[in-house]
Structures are given as structure tokens and as C-alpha cells.
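During the reporting period the student researcher (J.K.) took over the structure-prediction task from the postdoctoral fellow and processed the backlog of single-chain submissions. One of the processed entries is reproduced below for the supervisory committee.
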Amino acid sequence: MKQKPHTLKGDLAHLPAALAPLTALDHWLLWRWELRRGIWTKPPYTTGGGRAKNNDPATWAPYQAALAAADGGNGGSFDGIGFALLDTPFDVVDLDHCLDPATGQIDEWARIWIDAAGGAYIERTPSGEGLRIIAGTSGGEKLHRKWQIRGAREKAAIEIYRSAERYITITGLQVGACERLGQVNGLLDQIRTYFGAQHRGREREQSQDNLTLRWIIDALGPFELDPCASLHGSPCATHVIRPPADGLALRWPPEMLVRLNPPFDGYQVAKWIQRPADHGNGIALLHARTETAWFRPCWKHASAILFMAKRIAFCRADGTAQSANSGAPPVLIAFGDLAKHRLASSGILGALIHDWDWITAGAPDSKSPMISISLR
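J.K. obtained the following C-alpha cells:
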């Protein structure tokens, strides 16, 4: 028989002040570990010892009643207390298997969403291996979704709740110093949008969350800034900007050499490529769509362009290559003298061009002027 999991919990009789809005509601119940089909589960119970239901308020109780039962009242032997979320004004995010239980070190993928949550209340879960974010909400549709985290610890996952027919455990083991439960507007929607897009992309096997092959980064680096980093995978620069942060909205220090691998989507790449052209110090990996309007900033502002000899296959978060290649010839664009030198000395096979003249012709109001590139 499997050993019962060790359970973390704080002083349940004196929960952190930020949880006062929860203790004011009669949505409390109890839970205990039970082994079912070889897996330890946490079914909910009433203060009287019967089974509670996530969708039945008659089986819930005031906080003080749940606390008394957890301390041994009514003959119960429970491992903790919980809170039913149905019809409550709270947004909740579970970050499963996101930290080292021995050191408390939080994995980077989870840290991103903790930072995005601002001053929300955060606590450790009973297993000691997860974190829970709780915040107020101004309303919105009922939500309950869960996604596995690729390239992370085993069973790592993110789960979101809003007014769902679920209960959450409460340990009181606060992380951080939140004293008042505030709102984190849009966090659940950001998470749903990000992971929903990834899921749809995997179904199409054409996810926009492409990771550059490490040998390309090693040949061109080191880099100081990656403003369009994937949520998954190891960092490709000293400083990275990952979702939900907006790398286009944040400042790019001019002294930092930028590495840019934007989404290979015609509607998204256009807004990304003008930024490194203005920044003037970095290297971008793109499709060689030289005839498109979004490629014009490359012709106008780049210091060098390397047309790679072969198409490449991007990699997954675990470092393995995707089954199909990028679907178009790849090109590396250098902006600035340092980036130009990096391209020239990289050893990457292909055709390197530099020192050209940009010429446009046609009517001034033409939407598609003729473009001539003249090599010097």
C-alpha cells in the first residue's frame, strides 16, 4: 500500500488577513487523503462527516464550524479544510508541481504567472509541490480549464477556476506579503488565451510557440535580451521577456544585443520586425518572405542578411526537433555592426549579403511600390 502523502498546513485557526473575504462566506468543508485505485485523492466532507458536494451549498458550513471539525469535532479525522468556489467572487489559479519541496525554489514557468498576478494572495498547497493564486474578481463567465506544462516537472500543470463547481484546499501557508485580497483583472483570460492558442497550435502541428534550435543561438550569441521568449524552454539571452508580459510595450536598452524569433505569422511578424529595425542592435530569425510589406524594414535598416542554406525544423521545449520544417526558407537579419559581425563569423552555411542600396519607385500613393535592391 502506498504511504499516505505528507501534508503541509499552517495555523488554520489564524489564516492570513487576505483570506478574510473567504472566511466570511459559508462555503467551507473538510477533506482527507483517500487511496483510490492506487492514487491518493482528496474528496470533500461535511462537518458532520458525510460526503460534501461541490455544487450543493447545503453540504457546506461556516469557517468556524469547519475549523472545529478539522480539530477533531464530530469524531472526524480530516487532513485539512477547503473552500467551495461555486458562485463566489474569486479567481483561482493552481500551479501544480511547480517548485522543489525541499528548497522552495519556484520553477520559471510558474514564476511568470506569479509575477503577472501582481499582489494576489499566494499559498503553498498541501503536497508542498504546488502553489495557489487567489484573487478577487469583478465577474465574468464561469471557468474551469487545465493544461499540462510541456518541458517541466512530471505532472506540472496550470488550472484556472472562476465560480466553478470545485473546491480548493486552504493551507494558510502564504507566499509573499499580500494583506488584502485585490483583483487581478484579466489574469485567467490571459492564461486561457495563451494555453488555448498553444493547444490549437499543437492540433495543427503548427504552433506559433516555436523554439530556435540551440546550435543557432550558440553560433550567434551570447545575447543580452530576448523580448519575445517562449513560455517554455531554457532562456536564450541574459534577460528574457515571456508571456503574458508584452515585449513590444517594454523598453529595449540600446546597449543590449537582441535575439528575436517572433511568431511566424504574417499578421504578428509585421509588428515585431519594425522594433529591432528601430533598436538597431540585434539579430532576427524570420522567413525569407522578401516580397512582403513586412520585410521592407529589413531591406531599409538591416546591416546584413544571411539566407540560410537549408530549411530548419524548430524544436520543442525538451530540445527535440519538430517533425516538419519551418515551411519556408529561413533568413537571419542583422541590425547594427555587432550583429553584422556575428553573422559573418557564425559559420552558419548560407549566402551573406550586405552593403546594398534601397530604392523605391512608382506613384507616391501606391500601396505596393516597386522595390529595387542594388548590391554595392
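The committee noted the following: The longest strand covers residues 90-96.
J.K. will present the remaining backlog at the next meeting.
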